[in-house]
Amino acid sequence: MTKEAWQIQDIWLGIGVTVGVFFIYYAVAFITNRTTKNEEDLFVAGRSIGPMINSLAAASTWMSVATFLGVVALIQQLHMPFVFMWIQLILSVPLLVLFYGALLWRLKVFTSVTFFDMRYGKSVAFLGAVWMLLIMLMYMIGQYIGVAKVFEVLLGLPYFPSLVISALIITGYITIGGMKGATYNDAIQMVIMMVTFVVPLAAILKALGATGYWFPPLGYGNLTDVMLEKIPTFFDLRFDPRFYLALFVALTLGIMGLPQLAQRVFTSDSIKSVRRIVPLFCLWVGLMFSATYAMGFAGVFHFASIGETLTREAADKTTLLLNLAYNPEWVSTFVIAGVLAAGISTIAGLMIGIATVVAHDVVGALKPHMPDRKRMVWGYAALALTGIVSMVISLDPPAFLITSIFWAFGLSATAVTPMLVLGAWSTRVNRWGAFGGSLLSGLLYIALSPYVFKDFSVGAGLVAKLGYSVSLITVPVGFFLTIGLSLLFEKLKPEEAKSELARSQELVETMHGWPSVTRVRYNGTAWLIGLCLLWLPVFLWGLAPW
Amino acid sequence: METYRKEIRGTILFFVLYLLMCHTAVWSIFFGTSNDVRVLGFPAHYLAGIIFGWFGVLAVSIWWNVWADRLEQEITTSAVDPVSGDLPGEGRA
Lengths: 546, 93
Description:
By secondary structure, chain A is an all-alpha fold. Chain A contains 25 helices and no strands.
């Protein structure tokens, strides 16, 4: 398949739509800029966002370029198992809010790193900052590459100028608008995504002969028999149970620790608003995910029907190819606006996340008495620099669009989630356990992955590249070390541990909403040991050869 | 302490429910799969994954919202002594 097959012929139409949507984004950014008066406005939107806008913004932050491009390609490669893999990604915000989002909102933190500082002290906060910056940067590079590729399609320009133009435009509006601008723009972008993905999909399904095309997420059941004739293994599980267990360990536990989603929750105007985000988020994300499976199904069906095998690069663009094949060209320009919305809303969340960790958590910790105006200058500088640095790193992109994102989720599950969740639910986890557990298990995860020491890596192929095989070892290790070292240091340093325990009891009980501190709640060790016992068989299974 | 236990038990319950809704591949492994068992034209295990992974999670989230609102109310009211108006544990913290 040639490059021309997925390029829009009427470039000016594409440019017109893109300029139009960016005009809206910049207008919103300038309007919200006027109400950005302090650091809280810049990084958590002055904690003024209601659940409807915030749920759309959270869903938008979570929908990435991969939703439009990479996922459809991977459904073509992996079929049903990839759908199972993707389904559980909807749990990000529900589990985040259930386990710590609502609790941390009460503490008025800016990011999870702020919580680490309050709960464990500066050393753990700095370590958490390093992990989170690494995870967010890896995530963001994938998005920049995706958006640049869309600009390639749109303008017919080579990769380098596409990346520079898109990165500068995006960095500009996010820096001007801060979190307030990003929140309202994210909400607008989610609406754009839903419309530009689902409506053209209905037309594609109708053209393919789907009888329920009017409800695309579930309207293509009558094509099942034809699909099975062409690809008899499409609905097979293919992988063994350990693969599906790894999805829980690496992905479900990884995504609940993602800082950019947590920060989105902290912008809520009340704790009830935090909770209300969850069902609304599930509604929007469920619609988009289900439509994505339908698009993947349609892609496999279409190319199997015409007997064409796609290259990896072409498979990434299946959504565009289907639209160009079955819809008028002007529809594709709106689809591209949807892809751009998906990419830049994720970049917005990540950029603000990185800038907040750098300017508020790291610089703020080093210079706690910095005047508010100077903090704002640091904040804006951090936002702009984040965009530029990410652009420079993206100039030499990794091979496959979303591999690094999944790998980063495994790192989050290993090095961030244990100290975050245990810190919110147990007063007995202390700074020695959090620091040692996070550092050692995180380094182990990196060392065992196929990207550093190839001969030392656990598993091979897809499960190793996505971090699944490694996570089955390192996530249990993260929990063992965090809990084990905490209890060990209670014995080794009793005086220091006692004073830290007293502080933890006050903080943890307060964040759960109790008006009085009993020092009894969340204080047990039996459940921590029970948790380790639950992780033991997972760890042993992870050690078995893949 | 009853409200505290309720918080712990409820959180674990909702965590398990969320996992059951979104890890339907495990159900498929347990119960097996057949492309001949169809619902709305789809193999049942495929449709179950999509339906539970969307509407199932949505239903659990609505239930959790109702439960969490009530729990918050209980945490606030149970903390006040009905006779003296004092918070239990006051002075000990």
